[in-house]
Design brief:
It is built from twelve helices and ten strands. With 280 residues, it is α/β, with parallel strands linked by helices. The strands form two sheets. An eight-stranded parallel barrel has the order 1-2-3-4-5-6-7-8, surrounded by four helices. A two-stranded antiparallel sheet has the order 9-10.
Length: 280
């Protein structure tokens, strides 16, 4: 199981640590395409980055992404990339498929994910699977339904049944959700979110995953659990008034990164015991 931290960490000084600890990162082409991104350049040393097109972000900002420019960019950063997602068109399955088929004509060193979105039909899922050049499929459009428990569960049940009946050994990525209840229920090859490191660190949260539960602890309040962890982890460093914001954020990133890796190992071992081993 591969867990990807999506988004930018507020404090750039954290990036070398995440690189050294081999934290998997997912980057948005839309966010990094027009500038030299120091964090992304650092991640290139690992050669394992997951590059998403950023189509949803572009859509929300009223912008378009040029397919050929995206392809050229992927070729240019080839040494940095372990996986990439085809340029999807939100709400248009046929256009998304055409983009994937165009990208499948390229000689990339790394696999390209085709993406289906909620609420894809069985016919669309089967078409997407049949067209795969690489055995990698991503499921998107889940974040808006993440809090609608029955809707999310019913759709994922539906997708996994369709995939299993149609073709075996497809590696499936979950866009935007890394909750334990989801990752423990479905054998995803990988998943990403901003919750584990970026948002947690930015908003003063410690993320813990005891026995397959996700617990967000606010280190800025005085609830018993939060205060205990703040005293243990931050008393000497963050409890002093002379410690600046950057240092506080850096320490939250490090604390959360440690548990992010433990969580990744927990999910990996859970599925290994169930007989699902994806390997590298």
């Amino acid at each position: 199981m591969k867990l990807y931290c999506a988004g930018r960490i507020v404090t750039p000084i954290s990036e070398p640590v995440l690189l050294r600890w081999k934290i998997n990162r997912l980057w948005s082409y839309y966010a990094v395409r027009n500038k030299v991104d120091e964090a992304f350049n650092l991640d290139r040393e690992n050669g394992t980055a997951f590059l998403d097109s950023g189509a949803f972000s572009a859509l929300t900002q009223g912008c378009d992404i040029d397919l050929e420019e995206y392809i050229d960019y992927l070729h240019a950063v080839d040494p940095a990339v372990g996986y990439a997602a085809a340029l999807d068109v939100i709400g248009d399955f046929d256009a998304t498929q055409r983009n994937y088929e165009r990208m499948a004509c390229e000689d990339f060193r790394f696999p390209i994910y085709s993406t289906i979105h909620f609420p894809a039909t069985r016919e669309q899922i089967c078409r997407a699977v049949d067209s795969l050049k690489w055995p990698y499929l991503a499921i998107g459009g889940l974040v808006p339904i993440a809090t609608r428990g029955n809707t999310l569960r019913d759709f994922l049940d539906y997708v996994w049944r369709a995939i299993r009946r149609h073709k075996e050994n497809i590696r499936v990525h979950c866009f935007g959700i890394t909750r334990p209840d989801v990752l423990m229920a479905y054998p995803f090859y990988s998943a990403d979110s901003t919750a584990g490191l970026v948002n947690a660190s930015r908003f003063g949260k410690l993320m813990r995953y005891p026995r397959g539960r996700q617990v967000a602890i606010d280190v800025n309040n005085d609830d018993p659990c939060g205060w205990t962890l703040r005293r243990i982890i931050y008393k000497e460093i963050l409890g002093r008034g002379d410690v600046d914001y950057v240092t506080r954020n850096y320490m939250r990133v490090i604390a959360n990164a440690r548990d992010w890796l433990k969580y990744e190992l927990f999910i990996t071992e859970l599925w290994r015991r169930r007989g699902v081993v994806w390997g590298a």
